[in-house]
Design a protein that fits this description.
By secondary structure, the chain is mainly α. It is built from twelve helices and two strands, in the order αααααββααααααα.
């Protein structure tokens, strides 16, 4: 295998690992925006909140970052339920278009970012773990463990949530709530409570995604803005709520960004998400579904 082939192969592998992390970040958006039609623009800010909570628990208690992220799931779930209750009271009960909530979620994002700056400052923060630093060598392929571990955790989280949505009563109610609320009421299921649980799950996923982010790279409060375009792009491309479609779209985006950074110019990589988003919106308008179906 020549040097160029090795370079491309390593770029593809790195892109797959990166895409797995993107899927963890986009999972909450797939639930909120794709399934509930709630444009939660603030989701990346909750990812940053999860990252800094992980940093604090790692610093004070010496907890493994992934374990710290898992322990933050219950409080984030309750936080998500509270946020949806406010959103429902201010917008959905008044019959306003969900897009009117964009200003609300932008304000939430701004508040979280300002609070993080006030508490932690604008400096980058990082964590310590045994799997941060060393690389695994598989022939000509380099597998950085700081990317490999988050990739595995992301797949486990997505797989577990997909099984829950498909095989539990509450999960099936979540899948149905944005499509036929009347049918849920006829089955004596409250759409409000269903959305309350679903939005709680969406924000809870941000706790683990934040832990994965700070394992991959040091973070600072405004870093979440970099993921807004990426997350919405992969959710639209993946079919607006399709979990597996979102995962495939995330992997494609990660590979595309990695190849662009390796073979061309790293500064062009952030624009790749919008290169994905525009064709996806065009296809969605024509086919009325995501590229991978809803």
């Amino acid at each position: 295998m020549g040097p160029f082939a090795e370079l491309v192969l390593n770029a593809v592998v790195s892109g797959v690992l990166l895409g797995g992390f993107y899927a963890a970040v986009a999972l909450g958006v797939a639930i909120a925006f794709g399934m509930l039609d709630i444009p939660n623009l603030s989701h990346p800010a909750f990812v940053m909140l999860g990252a800094f909570a992980t940093y604090q628990m790692n610093l004070w208690l010496g907890l493994d970052p992934i374990l710290a992220g898992v322990l933050m799931v219950p409080p984030f779930f309750l936080l998500g339920m509270g946020l949806y209750a406010i959103f429902d009271l201010c917008f959905e009960r008044r019959g306003k278009n969900p897009l009117a909530g964009l200003a609300f979620f932008f304000g939430v994002m701004f508040i979280i970012e300002v609070l993080l700056v006030l508490i932690f400052g604008a400096d980058y923060r990082s964590v310590d773990a045994v799997y941060i630093g060393p690389d695994l060598q598989l022939g000509a392929i380099d597998l950085p463990t700081r990317m490999l571990v988050p990739f595995g955790v992301s797949l486990a989280m997505i797989g577990g949530l997909a099984v829950y949505l498909r095989h539990s009563f509450v999960g099936r109610a979540i899948l149905a709530v944005s499509q036929d609320s009347l049918a849920l009421r006829l089955m004596s299921v409250s759409p409000y409570r269903t959305k309350l649980v679903a939005f709680g799950l969406a924000i809870a996923s941000a706790a683990i995604a934040g832990a994965l982010l700070i394992v991959i790279e040091p973070v600072e409060p405004s870093l979440g803005r970099d993921f807004i375009g990426r997350t919405f792009a992969v959710v639209v491309l993946g079919g607006m709520g399709g979990i597996w479609g979102m995962l495939i779209a995330s992997l494609l985006l990660g590979v595309a960004e990695s190849l662009t950074s390796t073979l061309y110019d790293p500064s062009l990589a952030p624009a790749i998400a919008f290169g994905f988003l525009l064709p996806a919106l065009a296809l969605r308008a024509r086919l009325r579904v995501g590229v991978f179906g809803r």
